[in-house]
Amino acid sequence: MADHEVLHGFAPAVRAWFGSSFPEPTAPQVQGWPSIRSGAHTLVCAPTGSGKTLTAFLSSIDRLVTTSPPDPKARTRVLYISPLRALAFDVEKNLRAPLMGIELAAERLGEPFVRPTIAMRTGDTSASERQALQRRPADLLITTPESLYLMLTSEVRSTLVNVETVIIDEIHAMVATKRGAHLALSLERLERITRKPLQRIGLSATQRPLEEVARYLDRKSTRLNSSHVALSRMP
Q1: Helix (H) or strand (E) holding 201
Q2: Is 186 in a helix, a strand, or coil?
Q3: Best CA proximity match to 137, nearest among 119, 115, 163, 164
Q4: What is the pLDDT of residue 103?
Q5: Which residues of the chain have pLDDT under 50?
Q6: How far is residue 93 from each of residues 17, 182, 183, measured CA to CA in Å?
Q7: Interior CA angle at 53 toward 31 and 211, to 5°?
């Protein structure tokens, strides 16, 4: 059972689930979690299969399962943005197991547990599903750059005012493209309506040059600085 010091900041049920599921944290998790938990913008660069996704999500999951949601009409606190619809579907499916495992651990430990809702909005989402999402926003919303733009330019933007964390997957594919410029504009629009400053987390196995990707993640920075960007690599 994992009892690494980097886990000590998480809730007991989250630690118990992780310890029963993995022998120990991976290098990206050891390096990334302290930065993410501090609220800093964080860039995680690590190979596929090294635990990048859990590195990005676990702090948000910890917060969602231990705190009550805000206004039910604007309860979304975490946005996951993927340039690939297939990846968005995979992440939605893969988040179910940790949430179920943490709930069981909380029940076993007698700890309180708030069950978060997860939803997905992409170009494949039907009109009726979009309307349902507007009426009952999810705690964690999985989406694409294009769908985020449509939300921010409609009445749906009111459901996003409590977003605290934005996770951008495959960030390397966005940096030097028109699509990436479009997403950067959407993130600035989102920043203007949220009640708290956004924390931005970028994920990718292929980031070259790292400094340019870091500048894309945090437009206010002029150089790569370990105080707000954690680089997690594995051989």
Answers
A1: strand 199-204
A2: helix
A3: 119
A4: 97
A5: 221-235
A6: 18, 27, 24
A7: 55
What's the N-to-C CA distance of the chain in angstroms? 25
Beta-bridge partners for 199: 165
In the structure encoding, which two tokens stand for residue 217, read together? 């993640």
DSSP string, 152-173: HTSGGGGGGTT--EEEETTGGG
Q: Are 123 and 82 in contact (CB under 8 A)?
A: no
CB 26 within 8 A of CB 51: yes
| Of 102, 120, 115, nearest in space to 58 by CA | 102
Query: What is the predicted pLDDT for the residue at 220?
Result: 55
Residues 6+ apart with CB under 8 A from 107: 113
Residue 4 has a pLDDT of 79
pTM across the whole model = 0.90
The two structure tokens encoding residue 136 = 């009952």
Tally of CA atoms within 13 A in the half-sphere of 50 that contains its CB: 19
CA–CA distances in Å: residue 60 to residues 74, 199, 214: 17, 11, 21
At position 234, the amino acid (one-letter code) is: M
pLDDT at 207: 66
Paired tokens of 135: 């009426």
**149: three-class secondary structure by DSSP:** helix
β-pairing verdict for 78-81 and 42-45? unpaired
What DSSP string runs through 42-55?
EEEE--TTSSHHHH
Beta bridge partners of 166: 79, 200
The H-assigned helical ranges of 78-137 are 85-94, 96-109, 127-135
